[in-house]
Amino acid sequence: MHVSHLSLADFRSYARVDVPLDPGVTAFVGPNGQGKTNLVEAIGYLATLGSHRVASDAPLVRAGAGAAVVRAAVEHGERRQTVEMEINPGRANRARINRSSQVRPRDVLGIVRTVLFAPEDLALVKGDPGERRRFLDELVTARSPRMAGVRSDYDRVLRQRNTLLKSAAMARRHGGRGMDLSTLDVWDEHLAQTGAELLAHRLDLVAGVEPLAGKAYGQLAPGGGPVALEYRSAVVPDGEVPSREELAALLTAELAAGRKQEIERGVTLVGPHRDDLLLKLGELPAKGYASHGECWSYALALRLASYELLRAEGARGGGDPVLVLDDVFAELDASRRDRLAELVAPGEQVLVTAAVGDDVPGVLAGARYAVSGGRVERQ
Fold it and tell me: What residues have CB less than 8 Å from 219, skipping those under 6 apart?
């Protein structure tokens, strides 16, 4: 799979730009702040319905514009599709596949698949648990686009349940009569069902990614490691992989056991939104113990593992994901730079951004665009 054309309107710094793309390696080169990352961010948005740089859609729309449009032509073998997203901050986004406008935004998921390497990836190792949950959930959705609906349902139920708990907590603090919490049982059931589905997919993903991450780490940092990934959850027994039904029952039991504390604090304390992925290097957690270089190698290994997992599954019809390396090489020492370049060079489509052309290793020779002042020109 590869993106053969990218068109942007009022996206970030671009009033309008059209960029034809080829399979193989394409490098976008230019000074910082000229819009290189905006191009690959737009492709990533079509793949995940989110940005790797910001949490909301508003910064994606050019100043003074009411909406932004991202459109891409995508080729899967002999099949060609056009996918478009209209980004409307404060309103519902709109999606089109080919010429049909009768689609939901999440229906575009799976048409474009990407694996992104970026400086922000260091937060996978050094950051808070939310970074690692996001990593898992985006990869879960890339493997199974229908999981976008499950994640949305879980978030909706969690918000409703938290609203009820917060109201109960406030009533108690102000000496009011106890609220009717009979509906909490209903929300518990919904949370347990959707949470169990999400947990099952995360656990399956961790089992698939761990050996690939260990292999990738060894390639990037020979002699380092070993790497181990441990999913940490209040409801998953150590060393066990329960069924969906068992996970739902475990969640239900934990919610019941913690209800008093949840009412006191006004928030849901159990569920996938509280879990973490422990990244171990040898016998110790990478966070807090690994060196800066080891953390970088670990983060890159997780992305390479993601790529290999999606690539193996894409061999059954989805094709390779698009590899995006956003200003990564400038962050790496020479040995890691060369090893990473050799590992990703065979990808069906590799998109690279760099401030200086010399930052792009020679093994990643291919098409090159100069990006400056809102212009994207092929060299």
Answer: 304, 339, 343
| CA distance to 226, 227, 230, 299, per residue, from 285 (Å) | 11, 10, 10, 13
Residue 145 structure tokens: 């686009």
- In a 3-state reduction of DSSP, which class is residue 206? helix
Q: Tell me: the pLDDT tens digits for 171-188?
A: 777 765 656 677 888 999
108: which 2 tokens?
């575009």
The domains found in the chain, sorted by start residue, are 122-317 (1.20.1050.90)
Across all residues in the chain, what is the average pLDDT? 92
Return the amino acid letter for 226: P
**Which residue spans within the chain are E strands per DSSP?**
2-11, 14-20, 24-29, 68-76, 79-87, 94-97, 100-103, 114-117, 227-232, 276-281, 284-285, 322-326, 349-354, 367-372, 375-378
Residue 9's DSSP bridge partners are: 16, 69
8 Å CB contact between 92 and 265: no
Residue 315 has a pLDDT of: 57
- pLDDT tens for residues 61-88? 999 999 999 999 999 888 899 999 999 9
Secondary structure class of 82 (helix, strand, coil):
strand
Average pLDDT, stretch 310-332? 85
| Cα–Cα dist 256/265, whole Å | 15
Contact criterion met (CB below 8 Å) for 313 and 143: yes
Q: What would the mean pLDDT of 187-200 be, rounded to a whole number?
A: 96
**Which two structure tokens, joined as six digits, stand for 367?**
């098409």
Q: Are 236 and 242 in contact (CB under 8 A)?
A: yes
Paired with 37 in beta bridges are: none
Q: Would the pTM count as exceeding 0.90?
A: yes
